[in-house]
Structures are given as structure tokens and as C-alpha cells.
């Protein structure tokens, strides 16, 4: 088994390297297609959301508390609340609801 770990690390390194090198070698001109540009613009936000939202709902002992904090945080952020206000409110709501539920 210990010999296989080096093979796994090598394969992971090749995949990571390939993901970074293949676009550089295949795309030589600036991208002008609006669809592709808009797709590439939103990729970091979607990736962050996909990693963050499950962690928010599962961070407390009760997924309901996490979901309530998430919904309230979205509403406060949408209304123009600062990042500190949203974070403080979400932490407070998740804490109180995790004690109650």
C-alpha cells in the first residue's frame, strides 16, 4: 500500500499540471465569445458557493439552524448590510437556534 501512495501523488500532480497547462497551450488568442467570457467570469463564484453552502448548513448540530442563518444572511446582505453585520447576525442566529433545537 505504501508504494501506491507515490503513484497516487504522481497522478494527482499530473492532473493538476494538465489542468493548468492545457488551456495555455490550446488558447492562444483572446476570447471574444460573450457566452464563454460570462461563463468564465462566474466560475470562481460558483466554486466558492458550492464549497461554502453545504458547510454553512452542516456547521451546527442542526441543519435547520444553519439554513435559517444562511437565509437571514442572504436577506441582510441583499438589503445592504456590511460583511461584519451579516457574519455577526448569522453567527448569533445559528448559535441561538442550535441551543433551542
Defining traits:
101 residues; mainly alpha; 83% helix; flat
What's this model, at a glance?
The protein is mainly alpha-helical. It is 83% helix and 0% strand.
Provide structural commentary.
The structure is a single chain. The chain has 101 residues and is an all-alpha fold. Helix content is 83%, strand content 0%. It is built from 4 helices and no strands. It has helices at 2-26, 34-58, 63-78, 83-100. Helix 2 crosses helix 3 (63-78) and helix 3 packs antiparallel against helix 4 (83-100). The longest helix has 25 residues, at 2-26. It is flat. The N and C termini lie far apart (45 Å). The model has no long low-confidence stretch (mean pLDDT 86).
**What is the CA-CA span between the terminal residues?**
45 Å
Mean pLDDT: 86
**Strand-residue proportion:** under 5%
Instruction: Return residue spans where pLDDT drops below 50 for at least 5 consecutive residues.
Output: none
Q: Can you give the helix content as a percent range?
A: over 70%
Shape assignment: flat
Order of helices and strands: HHHH
Amino acid at each position: 500500500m505504501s508504494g501506491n501512495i507515490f503513484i497516487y501523488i504522481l497522478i494527482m500532480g499530473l492532473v493538476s499540471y494538465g489542468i493548468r497547462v492545457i488551456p495555455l497551450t490550446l488558447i492562444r488568442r483572446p476570447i471574444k465569445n460573450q457566452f464563454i467570457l460570462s461563463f468564465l467570469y462566474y466560475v470562481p463564484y460558483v466554486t466558492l458557493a458550492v464549497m461554502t453552502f453545504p458547510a454553512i448548513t452542516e456547521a451546527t448540530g442542526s441543519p435547520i439552524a444553519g439554513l435559517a442563518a444562511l437565509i437571514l444572511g442572504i436577506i441582510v446582505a441583499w438589503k445592504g448590510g456590511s460583511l461584519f453585520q451579516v457574519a455577526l447576525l448569522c453567527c448569533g442566529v445559528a448559535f441561538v437556534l442550535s441551543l433551542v433545537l
